[in-house]
């Protein structure tokens, strides 16, 4: 995609043409004031999501979100880990505070989708050790337009880049899948989700990249998406719908990668 990255966290933005909430070399970058974690217009997490992952550099600083899908595998956005070595990344899993609680693990392998060029914005992290937090199942499909979903993350809570600091407490926002035509920026309907910005003022922002979009199925959360980038033409958050990678569209790749990378 032309607009490479959304919502990467506490690190210096290096995106070129991006309406971007992203950074390159996230694990190594030094934190700055202009990209700190929050969801705009959301609220504090109402539950502890066992599968919620904070991707962190080796100093323990959050830079992206992710979802635990196996005891030793995390799915995130490819732009979060582009240019990073596994040794530069650790994860904290299953807590609403990215600075404490849950479990931590080192990353053994970073596997970005081979077709990542903006779309196909998905990557898998093989952890060096299993965690005991409960993973989230992938939904059979993301659902039709109008499907109710929830997004969660530690991304910026005000719309203007650098306009506020980062929360330590996980944020959540109830939203929905909207028509593909609501998203711009090279939207790929085959493997991306256009996600609503309720009231034209709420949605994902800088620091939410890679984090989950989930829906309830028979009373349980299932994973449908991973935060990718802004869906409009402005660098402000939440004024347009956001683009999420449709994780369910990559189930075959995920299964094959895990099967081949488990050793």
From TrEMBL:
Gene Ontology BP annotations: proteolysis
Ranges for domain Peptidase S1: 39-259
Keyword set includes Protease: yes
Domain of life: Bacteria
Membrane-spanning parts: none
Name under which the protein is recorded: Trypsin
Alphabetized UniProt keyword annotations: Disulfide bond, Hydrolase, Protease, Serine protease, Signal
Signal sequence interval, chain numbering: 1-29
The keyword Protein transport appears for this protein: no
GO molecular function ontology, one term from the record: serine-type endopeptidase activity
SUPFAM superfamilies listed in its UniProt record: Trypsin-like serine proteases
Entry's family note: Belongs to the peptidase S1 family.
């Amino acid at each position: 995609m032309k607009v490479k990255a959304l919502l990467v966290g506490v690190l210096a933005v290096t995106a070129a043409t991006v309406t971007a909430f992203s950074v390159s070399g996230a694990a190594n970058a030094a934190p700055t004031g202009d990209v700190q974690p929050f969801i705009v217009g959301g609220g504090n997490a109402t539950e502890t999501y066992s599968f919620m992952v904070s991707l962190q550099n080796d100093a323990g600083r959050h830079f992206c979100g992710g979802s635990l899908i196996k005891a030793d595998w995390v799915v995130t956005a490819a732009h979060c880990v582009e240019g990073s070595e596994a040794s530069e990344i650790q994860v904290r899993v299953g807590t609403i505070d990215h600075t404490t609680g849950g479990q931590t693990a080192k990353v053994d392998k970073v596997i970005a989708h081979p077709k990542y060029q903006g779309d196909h914005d998905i990557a898998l992290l093989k952890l060096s050790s299993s965690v005991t937090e409960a993973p989230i199942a992938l939904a059979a499909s993301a659902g039709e337009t109008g499907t109710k979903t929830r997004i969660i993350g530690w991304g910026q809570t005000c719309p203007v880049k650098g306009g506020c600091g980062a929360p330590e407490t996980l944020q959540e926002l109830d939203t929905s899948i909207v028509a593909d035509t609501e998203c711009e920026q090279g939207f790929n309907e085959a493997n991306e989700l256009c996600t609503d910005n309720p009231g034209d003022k709420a949605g994902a922002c800088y620091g939410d990249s890679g984090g989950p979009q989930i829906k309830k199925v028979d009373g349980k959360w299932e994973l449908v998406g991973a935060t990718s980038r802004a869906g409009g033409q402005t660098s402000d958050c939440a004024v347009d719908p956001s683009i999420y990678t449709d994780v369910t569209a990559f189930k075959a790749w995920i299964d094959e990668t895990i099967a081949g990378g488990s050793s």
